[in-house]
Amino acid sequence: MLLQSECKSQSILGGSDVAKSYHRPICRSREGGIATPGGLIESAVNMESMIEVRDLVKVFGSFTAVDQICFNVPEGSIRAFLGPNGAGKTTTIKMLTTVLAPTAGRIRIAGHDPVRQPMLVRRAFGIVFQDPSLDDELTGLENLALHAALYGVPRKEQGQRIEALLGFVGLWERRNDYVKQYSGGMKRRLEIARAFLHQPRLLFLDEPTLGLDPQTRSHIWEFVKGLAKEQSVTVFFTTHAMEEAERVADDITVIDHGKIVAEGTAAALKQATGTASLEEAFIALTGRNIREDEASPADRMRMMRRAWRGR
Amino acid sequence: MRAVWILWLRQLKRYSRSRSRIVGSLGQPILFLFGLGFGFGPVFARAGNGNYMEFVAPGIIAMAIIFTAVFGGIEMIWDRQFGFLKETLVAPVPRLAIVLGRTLGGATVALLQGLIVFVICLAAGFRIHHPLLLPIALAFMGLISMVFTAIGTAIGSVLRDMQGFQLILNFLVLPLFFFSNALFPVAGLPAPLRVVVLLNPLSYGVAGMRQAFAGGTGFDMLTDFVVLGTAAVVLLGISSFLFSRIEA
Q1: Residues of chain A contacting residue B160, judged by C-beta atoms under 8 Å apart
Q2: Could you tell me the residue range of the domain that residue A136 belongs to?
């Protein structure tokens, strides 16, 4: 009960009774017991957590997108961040990656504060965004060279690293082709290679396998797991594909309506909800309602681009 | 500074690879050059103002520059919507460096486009009187490019999609072009219009270019240079500020 005072989010579980039966306070270090009434002992937490989130809030106008969430991701682990559309996943990732300012709360990425020390945080992570973020008019190689320059990868190492990574994701032969000639899966692989280029300690993947066929998805996870293991990188990813979360992640955090509703291994979530699959567990936790996503400006732009370029 | 350089290079690569865009955006200035240049020539001469081609060519060059520059800056909206901007926003690089790289790149592209129109003007009968002053004319072209790319970047930082495209074309770019001294002399304009023209940074750029091409030197040109240079710095500051407030 001591820990309960640390983070209010656990007292407002997302409406699901079943959650209460096993949901433990998330706002503590994984080993537990390091918390004090005055707050967590920072050094103890920083040593082991690659991501540390406390009472994080983001409000847009009258809408609370992220509502006092707390979680830790230990260094070297792979964490799946699940939730229905509009649950607050992408907003959370934006705050973790310094591109969106939190309304309240505290974040530490590799021990640094994204608000106060954005440059240190940015150097520490690599990211694959939900939407492609490559320059289509450049070649694969040029995209990576641009990234290397932005991240200050030493010129001497640049060529070697790029060759190794492109080889790893199977794009070395196509390095001089324009990215606009790449398939969706190739673009994803290139983005993953790019995210590893500056040797980050943490990798964010926001629905990296959206819209890809099973072969490509399976490949991409092989690359990610392989690279993450090889370079001992912590991975934090979102997905709607439950079997991916189950197969890839060490632990799973479930967010809904801006609140963390559950956290644990896939087995623990299934056991606690009394369900046979992670998908059923997910639905038990987040309900059956279908979430509506509003058309974003990006969707409208895509339509316009299609109209313009549809020669 | 490596970041500034690589973003500059990116703009140039994109430019050199889109031949259809290069050619397409030359259409309008060429139309103006031939339509107005030859059409108004006799009237202009009869009114005692001399050779209209000589007068209007710097204006047409400026036109090519400002269209390319403003839309080069606004192009950032595409980058924003199709994601590439995010790649730069999460990079460990100050936003100022990103703005500088983009703006310098866009300005270089606009300058190149202006040079192409300059060559076309020469082919159409435009003559420069003092080749030694050409670098000064180029400097003015460069400053116009900077000013208007910065304006484009500022707009691109505020707008979220291309819905406002027509608005910007009709209520910003075209007025900036028409309410300047690009097409007609300032002398003899009604007072209110004269004020508008004198507030328009483009007027100073065109005046400077015109003088440099025609071989004049002196105080006027220095004033033009200072005004335009100040405008470039101020607008670059504004666009950096607006850019730095972008949240992905």
Answers
A1: 297
A2: 73-102+113-292
Residues 6+ apart with CB under 8 A from A159: none
Question: What residues of chain B, 18 to 47, have a C-beta less than 8 Å from chain A?
Answer: 18
How many domains, chain A?
A: 1
Q: What is the rounded distance in angstroms from the CA atom of residue A210 to the CA atom of residue A38?
A: 42
Q: Which of B86, B159, B245 to mutate to test the interface with A (most CBs of A within 10 A)?
A: B86
Give this prediction's pTM. Answer: 0.83
Tokens 């492609």 sit at which residue?
Answer: A132
| Interchain contact, A151 vs B92, CB within 8 Å | yes
User: CA of A37 to nearest chain B CA: how many angstroms apart?
Assistant: 35
Q: Is B95 on the interface with A (CB under 8 A)?
A: no
Query: What is the spatial distance between Cα B30 and Cα B124, in angstroms, rounded to a whole number?
Result: 10
User: Two tokens at B3?
Assistant: 């970041």
* Predicted confidence (pLDDT) per residue in B33-86, tens digit: 888 888 888 888 888 778 888 889 999 999 999 999 998 888 888 888 888 998
Strand order in the sheet with A202-206: A125-128, A202-206, A234-238, A78-82, A251-256, A259-264
Stretch B10-20: mean pLDDT: 91
Domains of chain B: total: 1
Q: What angle do CA B189, B65, A297 make, to 5 degrees?
A: 105
**B13 at interface of A, judged by CB pairs closer than 8 A:** yes
Contact state of B82 with A146 under an 8 Å Cβ cutoff: no
CB-based contacts of A158: which residues, under 8 Å, 6+ apart?
A145, A148
Tokens of A90: 């992408």
In a domain, A63, yes or no: no
Tell me which residue of B64, B63, B60 sits closest to B34, measured CA to CA: B60
What residues in A contact B91, CB-CB < 8 Å?
A: 122, 147, 150-151
CATH number at residue A141: 3.40.50.300
Q: Which of B6, B17, B78 sits opposite A149 (nearest CB)?
A: B6
Nearest CB neighbour to A150, from listed B14, B83, B91:
B91
| Out of A123, A127, A135, closest to residue B10 by CB | A135
Put simply, whether B1 touches A (Cβ < 8 Å) is no
Whether A17 maps to a domain, the answer reads: no
Lowest mean pLDDT among A15-19, A116-120, A220-224, B25-29: A15-19
- Domain with B224 in it: 2-244
Helices B201-214 and B134-158, packing angle to 10 deg: 160
Query: Does a structural domain hold residue A185?
Result: yes
A263 assigned to some structural domain: yes
